[in-house]
Batch of 2 targets.
Target 1
Amino acid sequence: MANRIPRVPVREQDPKVRAHNFEEVCFGYNEEEARLEASRCLHCKNPRCVSACPVAIKIPDFIERIVAGDFAGAAAKIAEDSSLPAVCGRVCPQETQCEGSCVLGVKFEPVAIGKLERFVADWTFAQTSATGCPSSTVSLRETPPSQVAGPLPLSMPRVAAVSEGQPVGGSSPKRKVAIIGSGPAGLACAYDLAKMGYDVTIFEALHKAGGVLEYGIPEFRLPKDKILKREIQDVIAAGVKIETDVIIGRTVTIDSLMDQEGFEAVFVGTGAGLPKFMGIPGENLNGVFSANEFLTRNNLMKAFRDDYRTPIHAGKKVCVVGGGNVAMDAARTALRLGADTTIVYRRTEVELPARKEEVHHAKEEGIDFQMLTNPVEIMGDERGWVRALKCVRMELGEPDESGRRSPVVIPGSEFEIPTETVIMALGTSPNPLISRTTPGLEVTRRGGLVADECGATTRPGVFAGGDAVTGAATVILAMGAGRKAAAAIDAYLKSK
Amino acid sequence: MAVNDNAMFKILEKKMLNPTICKMVVEAPRIAKSALPGQFLIVRADEPGERIPLTISDYDRAAGTVTIVIQPIGASTRSMVDAFQAGDSFADVAGPLGNPSEFVRMSPEELKAQRVVFIAGGLGTAPVYPQAKWLHEHGVSVDVIIGARTKDLLIYEDEFKSVCDNLYMCTDDGSYGFKGVGTARLEALVAEGKTYTQAVAIGPMIMMKFSVLTCKKLGIPIWVSMNTLMVDGTGMCGACRLSVGGVTKFACVDGPEFDGYLVDFDEAMRRSAQYKAEEGLANGK
């Protein structure tokens, strides 16, 4: 193999410092670092990274542009397939997707595709912040200044898409599509449909757009104002309207959207928002929280900031139960709120479903990992507050249906971890509000909406995708489902 | 968020009902169109504010308004009452949330057979109003018992006069109406020969707990409206969980009304105080 440049390390906040703040952990590459890292790409004839990407970003093509210093060109290339590169560069599980398939990774370290994607997105933001308008050489020719009205466009390649999206002649009214939920699935679906020329409105139940990107993923992993808000602004710049505080199934129903408000198709991207508990004694004690509650208070409601009024309770000692990204997020949030924090997981570190980088960061920051440990009871004091988490030790037995070796209790291994707070991060399931209030919409045994590969549900005109269909998965899979559904909605409306 | 700012939720009318309780009529056309008795709203007054669950006290579909009644108990409710005037707008009003009252789901025959008594306490008096009004409009016999510590704290007396058959006012200190708590008034009414098929208690948890004990003694089924802690109000956070018949339920999506006989009030009251220490800090902010 000709390429012997080692993977360019990314600069990060010192773990000792960042354990006490909510600033972003990773600083990202600068231009020089990005170009050096990009030069490691072998430009395979059949790039496996592209097929491993749920939205099929043309990875070697954008990397090639980085090498040439054409960062705007790289951004335009990514924008052909993704509306949320700054988000995905930060939160995708690259090690199991693009980077996991990188040929370089067989013998050496894979190309840091995620960090390069992030670099391109952040570079684009920086250009618009610095000058108020894009300084790049691309795209201006595609967007007459007259169309850049209202708020300044934040990303040129994507604003350029607006002009493609205008109906030819502009006389026929655009056909209306409703998107339910402003998380990754909804944003991706809305962005594509707006580019195709549809009149798209997203309905969001909470007061801020973004779904799990807003309420679930913490500031130190995905800055809200600096990154998420701008990425959502780009979707709006493509022509999408977002109406917050509308709970579909309560405020209005899918039936009323279609029958009374003139929406011809609906995409349900409501995610998997219902928290799971273990069903062990003591779960209703004071000091036991779902990770959803803990993270929503901190992220959406900004409880970590003194100038916001929503309270949050961590205390001196916190135990987080679970091993996914949400468990890591909750644990690292508790740590930053000043708690000594332990993660309790019933399998071994190898099976932790969280991104490797998050586990690595959590360890660097000083979080204690108790693997092969399973809670059996939460012990309370006389006032009804948590005082300890009673656990058993586990060992790995035979592989289960997921291929992972299932943990088995070691008899007589009970012990207590003294703690003030217990956070349950055991996964989530889809919210039944929409399926219960929409006749003709079938759900699976696990509560997910029944939908085919393209997102078509059992009700004509209603499509669905993301966690609402699959149960809790990843941002990028939800985006992929949103994009597929957008294409299917387009085909459906054209045939109607 | 600066994205596509919604039409704000304008306060059209503000009135102090007594020295602490404040009534507001708020513009929220989508909610007014779909609200039913028993449901609640989440209000976030301004950017730093909490999401506060408030029961719907009335709605006007034609005018596109909902009425809420607020009593300052924490930093956010204090700011809503003190800092917001008619003409101002709340940042967010979301709803209607929760299930409508059981009555709304009854058939006309079932409704006809009902003789309902409401026991209302303090702030809980306001959300009784749309239920009594709805039942009255559907020809159901409705008695309402309103209780407060003292005369100055009683609210909604005039409003109730036109929506119920009998209105009984009670004060703990005897400064107005019956001297004693609402449950004592109920016991007296039953002793006088009144019969009820269903009681509904809305008010502080401790008052609902004792209403349930009284109704158990009198053999009257009772529903209670659980005003637990909440963040999102849509089933996402689980802050509102409570034990009903030994099973964990979410007040926001499974309630807010539950069979009072089955609710574990002691646990619910303990859980309600969960953020007391932190709220003390917020009040000082």
Note: Chain B touches chain A through 49 residues (CB under 8 Å).
Target 2
Amino acid sequence: MPDKDLQALTEQEYKYGFVSDIEMESIPAGVNEDIVKLISRKKGEPEFMLEWRLRALRHWRTMREPTWQKPHYPAIDYQSIIYYSAPKPKKELSSLDEIDPELRATFEKLGISLDEQKRIAGVTGGLDSATAASPAPGVTPRVAIDAVFDSVSVKTTFQETLKEQGIIFCSMSEAIRNHPELVQKYLGSVVPFTDNYFATLNCAVFSDGSFCYIPKGVRCPMELSTYFRINTAGTGQFERTLIIADEGAYVSYLEGCTAPQRDENQLHAAVVELVALDNATIKYSTVQNWYPGDKEGKGGIYNFVTKRGIAHKNARISWTQVETGSAITWKYPSCVLKGDNSVGEFYSVAMTRDYQMADTGTKMIHLGKNTKSTIVSKGISAGKGDQSYRGLVKITKAASGARNFSQCDSLLLGDKCGAHTFPYIESQNKSAVVEHEASTSKISDDQIFFLRQRGLSEEDAVNLIVNGFCKQVLSELPMEFAVEAQKLLGLKLEGAVG
Amino acid sequence: MPTPLLEIKDLHVSVEGTEILHGLSLSVNAGEVHAIMGPNGSGKSTLTKVLAGHEAYQVTSGSARYKGKDLLALEPEIRAREGLFLAFQYPLEIPGVSNTYFLRAALNAHRKHRGQPEMDAAKFLEVLKEKAKQVDVDPALLNRPINEGFSGGEKKRNEILQMLMLEPTLGLLDETDSGLDIDALKIVAHGVNSLRSKERGFVVVTHYQRLLDYIVPDYVHVLFQGRIVKSGKKELALELEKKGYGWIEEELAAANPGSVKV
């Protein structure tokens, strides 16, 4: 590839690195009982929540930060992080029109419309919204959005429409105030406050997030989605998502994320819990595009997230993730297949370039009989990017007839990147069938030459090959988001090849 | 005298520091089919790759003009969009990318280059199906990933299908006949012949006279140790088939002692 092209391409920058000038209300940095009490008070939480938070904080103090992961990072000073930062309310808002115009403009700029009359461009934000928002004629897929800005949810759309079917879709803060019985029953039921260092910290300090409840037998008529935006410097984002699909219910949920470009690293330690009761289905998709840091590896988000779902009898939980951002991505969306015949799926595309690192994968815990899990992981490394697939398939004694199929493929672009696979399989039941396939490949010069010989530019050639490589996973995303994820990968690839 | 479609003069080409072509000259006019024959390792594939712009092949001196322009100054995709097509000896596989999707992207890249609007999906499929039939490509293969799991013959027919879709001005066929049975050979030859016209030229690299029974060349050249050492009409191919290359080596050695490593 000629140097001039390479140079032009490597100048491709992160599109969402802007900072919004919005008056914010932040609390002092650091974490202690007073801070936790302050957050809880700001949210107007009932006593049980504060109690839970404090128990988590006390437990967190006894824990040590894990070190077994592949990506290493300079020590995080947890006392220098601001745990709560929210746009200052100008007055009590009663309608959409009263949202701070600057805030609304920020989301518009990201391609997210907070106006129910307008279709959203999508969760990855602003990626040529004209194309993304052109579904087939006659199809009007609508997406309800919960927009989270730093520590708080600023707007949840279509709440009223959803309510007609008994669906609750709101910010976690609202859920705690308005539906304490559901929160108390399910919060921490999948990821307990003792779970792991980052999840435990999240339990103590989480500020907002999304809550969703689909009643018995209801098929949620639209995609539900949360868009996370980190804006303020020095803050960490600790959100909490809880989705409950009652018996026989169905919901497809999607999250997207971006953050401004900054030289220092920012921590995003979220917890997502999914509860799929008997015969329910939850599809959870993520298109993650946090600021990845610059060419020299300076700055970027630490995306340390705990995601887990529990599937009851005949239930199905499907995780699909497209991870393109963050300096470090470290997460394992997992399924606890508790009920007989329950199904868990994990489809992942992770792309790392420059100095990005990813250590991601899944855990499939088979507890029930005839439980099934599928894992398809596609890793793409370019530049000095380094990534690991780490996965656990555990078949317990009781899980007779359990089945797992895992496929982990890595694609390397260039010769300075790395890909690693750590599959762990623990089977305690002789009737289980566990299959694992793995491959590592490079895009060959001959493949690129072939495509260029047919008239495609080098960029388009690489794009085509990468999209082909990811196809199996991208096809699991809701259609319009698949288009955006594809474009996002294309943008990420620019300048990644040379 | 019109400008030749392709004019190669004294071309020297190296791969990883080793010179493979030592001053090759060749002129192809529009409307002509030239066959290039020669023993293994004589530089036949190198010639097609360097004309198509593969980066591993370094031109150290000499020139190649295409439609009067400096071909070597163009990026591979520009050469392609200007109508230069290479049918690969070993067609590449691209997992996960459907033939149809790829061909449409390629065709539209060509159309854009020519200032034409994109071909709409319905029209494209119609044309594709018709051309696929012409080279006996199973419609089911069109939606499969490029060449993945295709048989040798299917891959070669797929190359010709791509050529039919892109309608090049200069077609380079690199041993397209290798590994084909006689029926497939006829199909491939028929595909090429259907494109023959007074505007188009072809350079057909082959080991065997057999292909030339079906794609009848105007000229036959013998490539030997990086140079064209003998040129003739189609009868030359028959002679090579009968006598092999030994007599050409002897002729060369006699004419120019010391220049040929026998």
Note: Residues 19-132+140-455 of chain A form one domain.
